[in-house]
Design goal:
Structural class: mainly alpha
Shape: elongated
Protein name: HAT C-terminal dimerisation domain-containing protein
Helix content: 55-70%
Largest sheet: none
Number of helices: 5
Number of strands: 0
Order of helices and strands: HHHHH
Organism: Cinara cedri
Distance between the termini: 18 Å
Strand content: under 5%
Number of domains: 1
Radius of gyration: 19 Å
Length: 128
């Protein structure tokens, strides 16, 4: 391989490392939003979901952390006794949001967009 080819390869590896740090750390912080999906309700603590939700406090209409926490508790209670036909992903879950789940609906919408955005970034980068 030529010296310029080696330089280009190293540059791509550097860019890849920066993208991995940037996107993976952010993704790791918001992954608890998966706990809003009823099929995952026992996989995440309410505190972790709340922490992830608060990263988007400018995007949701809740006036306080307590309001979001109360909505999360009501959401978990809604799904506590349902064992069959629970939604298994964010898109299926959106259908079950009503006027009392405004913040959760927005968080689920954000969660679906993050998946698409992350995939688009990976596809764009892999084409380099």
């Amino acid at each position: 391989m030529s010296a310029s080819g080696s330089w280009k390869q190293q540059r791509l590896l550097d860019i890849d490392a920066r993208y991995q740090i940037r996107f993976n750390n952010r993704f790791k912080d918001i992954i608890p939003l998966e706990g809003l999906i009823p099929d995952n309700k026992n996989n995440y603590k309410t505190e972790d979901i709340l922490k992830a939700a608060l990263m988007y406090d400018d995007d949701i209409p809740a006036n306080s952390d307590l309001e979001i926490q109360a909505e999360l508790e009501l959401w978990k209670t809604k799904w506590a006794n349902i064992e069959n036909q629970k939604p298994k992903n964010a898109i299926e879950t959106l259908i079950h949001c009503d006027l009392f789940n405004t913040n959760i609906k927005i968080l689920l919408q954000i969660r679906t967009k993050i998946t698409i955005t992350s995939a688009a970034a990976e596809i764009s980068f892999s084409s380099l």
